[in-house]
Write a structure and sequence with these properties.
single chain, 472 residues, 11 strands, elongated, RNA-binding
Length: 472
RNA sequence: GGCCCCUUAGUCUAGUGGUUAGGACGUCGGCCUCUCACGUCGAAGACAUGGGUUCAAGUCCCGUAGGGGUCACCA
């Protein structure tokens, strides 16, 4: 048919989409878009205990937020559906029956309890437990409760070329006759994923590093089924600061948590892809850049530590490159969320313009600049230092000046401040700081002329009066 | 513990036998400046270790150490 790659992302809906899953999805998606191939989304929901519809929605949402789209999937269908594994049970059964008919798999009637006893015993004797093949020769009796096991070879080894790790060899004597179908007819991961990958004609499997040990078994099964073996690419793990697998105790690990903190989806994508992949010395990539450059050749083989600081920096770079209108538009919900009456208007655009240099996320922006939309929270130290009797004449001068200016233009304000400083023989900072404290409540803010312009004449005068009142 | 994988600064990485080992985050310092931030200039900081192979090794081979993964009727 076509030699274009077909790749897939196959999450289990047992929770939100986490950082690691997102990166796996991204690598697959990028490769599909880069090559003009097909990106398939499949939901591996065979673990009924832990799978929820809610998680399915959450994962889809997160994928969409990151900007990924899929060519085939549960919600949009496609030629190889259905795309929920629990809706494909007959398919797995069919493949299993084929294997049984050819003597490559067999029914096993051992109970879980019996096996547990053996397992414990092996453990006690410090022996490696391996299913002994008790049921290998037994006839197939579907009426008895059973699982299906795939017959693994006992000697030799399987070697495959991993796209990121190179050749990987697994000795067969470490393998046991794997259960492929549970007693209730559900496929196990190794079998379900493989059957679907065959049916969905997946040509490249890029997945987490934790699956390397599954690969040889799967290859043996592909061969047993006479199906073409896809190319495998095992992506290195993402670790926390302590170099252990990234988990909740390292902080936020869900994609949506970063959305809620006010990260830009493109920046999250940018950071995540760069974690484990590189393109020379480049750091900032648009999505188009990534689609243009992404390859598995430059995916590193080593696990990487997730560094929130650097992601913050990447996000900041992205915010600064956005047009101010866009920053303002995206900032609205964050201000609203904080109960601040921001609107997508000229004022917000001015706020956005000066704030994006100083805030690395929209969350920070709201936190830092709430005084543009709410009464100031006067920092006691700033008050003590700058709202002094000495400052009173200066504040009065500025108040009068602002009141009398025909328009709050930057040049006019600049002149006002310079004159005020000169008149009293002060450095410019001596004038600006008390005004800054009066208008913002603190000692750090955007340029004072911007602050005045954003607040407007009325609010500026009010806040100056308030400060003057405090000094008494 | 068996098996598999990995190892360049605190972190992400460039590097495919010959480089003063490059970039980025972070850190520290200078400059800019109405504060903060931005920007800018600069600094400190790495090839885990021991053997080989080679005229030459971060790059190739072997060992050691350390780290990670995996050993289910989870995925």
């Amino acid at each position: 048919m076509s030699d274009k790659p077909r790749v897939r992302f196959a999450p289990s809906p047992t929770g939100y989409l986490h950082i690691g899953g997102a990166r796996t999805a991204l690598f697959n998606w990028l490769w599909a878009r880069r090559t003009g191939g097909t990106f398939v989304l499949r939901v591996e929901d065979t673990d009924r205990e832990r799978s929820t519809q809610q998680a399915v929605e959450a994962i889809f949402d997160a994928l969409r937020w990151l900007g990924m789209d899929w060519d085939e999937g549960p919600d949009i269908g496609g030629p190889h559906g259905p795309y929920f594994q629990t809706q494909r049970l007959p398919v797995y059964r069919r493949y299993a029956e084929q294997l049984i008919a050819e003597g490559k798999a067999y029914a096993c009637y051992c109970s879980k309890e019996e096996l547990d006893v053996l397992r414990k015993q092996a453990e006690k004797e410090k022996r490696q437990f391996k299913y002994p093949g008790t049921c290998r020769g037994k006839p197939y009796d579907p009426s008895r409760r059973h699982v299906i096991r795939f017959r693994m070879p006992e000697t030799g080894a399987t070697t495959y070329q991993d796209l990121v790790k190179g050749p990987i060899t697994t000795p067969h004597d470490t393998l046991q006759d794997e259960v492929i179908l549970r007693g209730d007819g559900m496929p196990l991961y190794n079998f379900g994923a493989l059957v679907d990958d065959i049916e969905m004609k997946i040509t490249l499997v890029a997945r987490g590093d934790d699956h390397v040990n599954n690969t040889a078994r799967q290859i043996l099964m592909y061969e047993g089924l006479g199906a073409p073996v896809p190319v495998f690419a095992h992506l290195p793990m993402i670790l926390g600061a302590d170099k252990t697998r990234l988990s909740k105790r390292h902080g936020a690990t869900s994609v949506t948590a970063y959305r809620d903190m006010g990260f830009l989806p493109g920046a999250v994508v940018n950071y995540l892809v760069r974690l484990g992949w590189s393109h020379g010395d480049d750091e900032i990539f648009t999505i188009d850049d990534l689609v243009k450059y992404f390859d598995f050749e430059h995916v590193g083989a080593t696990a990487g530590v997730f560094n929130p600081e650097k992601m913050l920096w990447v996000n900041h770079e992205w915010m600064r490159q956005l047009p101010r209108e866009e920053v303002a538009r995206r900032a609205v919900p964050f201000f609203r969320q904080a109960g601040l009456p921001a609107e997508d208007d000229e004022k917000l655009r001015h706020v956005a313009d000066v704030a994006r240099e100083r805030a690395k996320t929209f969350g920070e922006m709201v936190q830092q600049f709430r005084y543009f939309y709410a009464p100031i929270q006067l920092d006691p130290k700033a008050k003590e230092k700058f709202l002094t009797a000495d400052a009173k004449p200066t504040l009065s001068t500025i108040r009068a000046g602002v009141a009398g200016l025909p328009a709050l233009e930057t040049a006019a304000l600049e002149k006002l401040f310079q004159d005020a400083a000169a008149a009293r023989g002060l450095a410019a900072g001596k004038v600006a700081q008390p005004v800054r404290v009066a208008l913002t409540g603190g000692t750090a803010s955007p340029g004072i002329y911007d602050v005045i312009q954003i607040l407007g004449r009325e609010e500026t005068l009010k806040r100056l009066d308030d400060a003057l009142g405090l000094i008494g």
